[in-house]
Amino acid sequence: MDLTQVLLILTVVTVFAYDFTNGFHDAADMVATAIASRAMKSSVAIAIVSIFTFLGPLISGLAVADTVGTFIEISHTDTHHAQALVIAALLAAISYNLGTWKFGLPSSSSNSLAGGLVGAGLFIVGSTHINWGVDALMHYRLEGLMKVIAGLFVSPFLGFIVGFIIMKIIFFIFRRFTVKIRPLFVLSQYFSVAWLGFSHGANDAQKGMAIIGMMLLASGDTQHFEIPLWVVFMCTTAITLGTMFGGWSIIKTLGFELYRIRIIHAVANQLGAALVNTLATAIGAPTSTTQVVTATLLGSGAAEKPSHVGWRKAGYIIAGWLFNVPVSILMGALYATLFTQLIGALT
Fold first, then answer.
1. What's the structural domain count of the chain?
2. Going by C-beta distance under 8 Å and a sequence separation of 6 or more, which residues neighbour residue 86?
3. pLDDT at 333
4. Could you point out which of 221, 247, 287, 339 has its C-alpha 20 to 30 Å from the C-alpha of 157?
């Protein structure tokens, strides 16, 4: 077995690890409010999220994977250098994921991966091989890195606004109802959690698929960027396993430390986050489910009473977001340096 195939296998294993750590963050975020509001048992919430996360990319297509997997041009790059780029980006994302998970802070796996790709890409192939998307933006089109940035950085602000508006609408519609209406909200949780899981799979689960698609192209196993069906199944399975075995500290942060979550907050949070993810997926823009869910939850809390929200804790979370991309870019460049030297020594 030559070095090219060894690195391909290493990448597939690393993507599995990346998606597993992704499960720590994103899937945990999705079930946090349902568990905190006591609308359903944790095992039920996780089962629903897992099933619909798995179905998302199978039904909704792979537009997001195409966006992430093609904004850096590697088809004419030396095989081992292209492979080093992909592995370095993955390791940067995994490192940041594990670091924030250790402190129970919901970070963005998507931002980590995008930053890692930019850092490794700048070091290995240079800025000319990155589709920055600036020229297209001047002609009112979103493509390349600009589409990635738009999806990842606009979606949290949109999530806050949507969460705020949905919460106000719920308060207005049900202002004359009593606690007897609770069973309706409990039932609605099954729909909203399922939709959120589906929208997560349709968007966020595709980043790992994009990486393997890039690696298959770099290794010469495919002639153009594409995502085989086995990759779809592998990545969704990895995220599902991550949900089952980790992320409980993040569930604690979002579900119990921002403010006292009631069932109406949970419904507004899940519906709002699912809506934002679905809109982004429709245009092929990647989002961070972590950021969207957290921002929507803050919007829902602010709509009821801003003083009840734990803004200090929210500040720690937002600080983690702000450091996410620059730290990931530096880590991507660092790992790229190490891997190019290692591959050079082996060849």
1. 1
2. 11, 74, 120, 211, 214, 215, 218
3. 95
4. 247
